[in-house]
Amino acid sequence: MDIFITGFWILSVSCVVLFVYSRSALPTSSDASFHSFKRSYMIVYLLAMAGDWLQGPYVYALYESYGMSTHDIEVLFVAGFGSSMLFGTFIGSVADKYGRRTNCIIYGILYGLACITKHFNNFSILMVGRLLGGIATSILYSAFESWLIHEHHKRGFESSLLGNIFSHAVVGNSLVAITSGLMAQKVADYFGYVAPFDASMTFLGIMCIVIATTWVENYGDATANALHSFKEAATAIKSDYKILCLGLIQSLFEGSMYTFVLEWTPALTPSDTKSLDKSSDSHRASIPHGYIFAGFMVAVMIGSCLFDLMRQKCSVEFFMRPVLFLSAIALLMPIIFPGNQLVIFSGFLVFEICVGIFWPSMSTMRDRYVPEATRATIMNFFRVPLNLIVVVILLQNLSMKVIFECCVTFLILATVFQHWLYRMSCNLPSKSIPVSVEDTKEEKTEFEETVEEKI
Q1: Phi, psi (deg, nearest 5) at residue 428
Q2: Tens-place pLDDT, residues 98-119
Q3: 233-257: buried (b, 16+ CB within 10 Å) or exposed (e) per residue?
Q4: Rg (CA), the chain
Q5: Which helix (H) or strand (E) holds 352?
Q6: What is the pTM (predicted TM-score) of this model?
Q7: CA 132 → CA 1, 12, 252, 271, 391, distances in Å?
Q8: How far is it, in rounded angstroms, from Cα 108 to Cα 113?
Q9: CA distances (Å), 114 to each of 194, 197, 198, 244, 445, in order?
Q10: What is the pLDDT of residues 172-183, one digit of tens each?
Q11: What is the rounded distance in angstroms from the CA atom of residue 245 to the CA atom of residue 251?
């Protein structure tokens, strides 16, 4: 246990030092309107993430308290990922046509309804909640970023400042995650396992009010119907190899990340406690989950600070290649050194640092390559294979070693696709943002012409 607590405090001190250094070393904007815009987005985004984080720690515990079997709980979890996979692309089309601001409010409503279902000890009602939660998650990871990117460019702010917002959003999200975990623990201790979901509802309600009163609406292609947006997004992905690479990288990395979330506890649990009867709580008390989770979140913040520093020196496409490869090496630790807590924990911390670099890097590249007209739809297309990866792994009775081997394989493939993306970014003249499918077709033609000339 000492290594986890010591590791947390070492990481915390390192994070503070790195954060202060990165803030002093990086250029800042004196534009008051930009800071006002950034603040209005960050308040909403962090409220949205608080609504999500508050639910996470007690979903499984609540289902167990209702006397549900392990199989029923697994079915509910699969339903959430499956819902996001099936309905996500349609929801993205709705956001592009009817407005990203409206879609963000719908996120709060759907997730709030999902929280209400947690009050009922009924499998069917809880299943409805999981389906609503899956749809809400698709909105969370597409509509908010789509709104931000559109408004940022519409208001004429420098493109480089967008990376600043992405980086600070990751830091803020990590702090919110830690705070939400502590809050969930407190309210659950006093009022029971359903209380964190009521707290989540409160934050989601406040978020909806803030969006309605401070955000303006923006759209992708408001003239197209949802089916047309869906087809346009699919055409853009097929026509532009860069968009295809982004989707594959996101799916492979995030699929590994969500799988890691399910596996880090057994990987760090001492082998003698794993053999205990699963009905006992002994194996849960064998490692300090709170300190470990907090350490992971601090590592993510360190990664975000490193992103700020690295993007000043080289392109995101360039430095993401070693970052993805390093993440694969990090998840090799439980395969090569099973049972070695120090080595495995160190590897997991390195992986979380890579996660902290990954989030703002992907947002930056999506801003650069994804067409504005179908941005939310394409972002939800990316989540289909991601959710498929997690669902398939959840449905298989795989050993922990095989699961981590799958994750390492996915991350190595992501590294290969990132290298391909980097090569394309070097061969093509830089464009700020593709605004239509025709732009992506034109870029593909330029790439093919470049290849033909070299041949």
Answers
A1: -100, 145
A2: 889 999 999 999 999 999 999 9
A3: bbbbbebbbbbbbbbbbbbbbbbbb
A4: 22
A5: helix 341-369
A6: 0.83
A7: 38, 36, 24, 38, 17
A8: 9
A9: 12, 9, 10, 33, 46
A10: 999 999 999 889
A11: 10
